[in-house]
């Protein structure tokens, strides 16, 4: 049985490694608009 590791990302607030799905992705467009990326 292969144990697949879930993708992890670093939280910019606390600098901890967390599962990708438990974090929000915030993006800044070329126009300078900052918003939550709901599509991930």
Helix tally? 0
| First-to-last CA distance | 29 Å
What share of residues are in beta strands?
Answer: 25-35%
Q: Provide the spatial order of strands within the biggest beta sheet.
A: 1-2
Instruction: Tell me the Rg in angstroms.
Output: 13 Å
Question: Care to count the β-strands?
Answer: 4
Shape: elongated
Average of the residue pLDDT scores: 91
- Percent helix, as a range, is under 10%
Task: Sketch the major β-sheet.
Answer: 2 strands, antiparallel
**How are helices and strands ordered from N to C?**
EEEE
Low-pLDDT regions: none
- Structural class of the helix and strand makeup? mainly beta
Task: Describe the protein's topology.
Blueprint: E1 8-10, E2 17-19, E3 26-28, E4 34-36
Antiparallel strand pairs: 1-2, 3-4
Would you kindly provide a brief summary of this structure?
This protein has strands spanning 8-10, 17-19, 26-28, 34-36. The chain has 40 residues and is mainly β.
Overview of this protein structure:
- The chain is mostly beta strands.
- The chain is 0% helix and 30% strand.
- It contains no helices and four strands.
- The strands form two sheets. It has a two-stranded antiparallel sheet with strand order 1-2. Strands 3-4 form a two-stranded antiparallel ribbon.
- β1 and β2 form a beta hairpin.
- The radius of gyration is 13 Å and the shape is elongated.
- The relative contact order is 0.21.
- The model has no long low-confidence stretch (mean pLDDT 91).
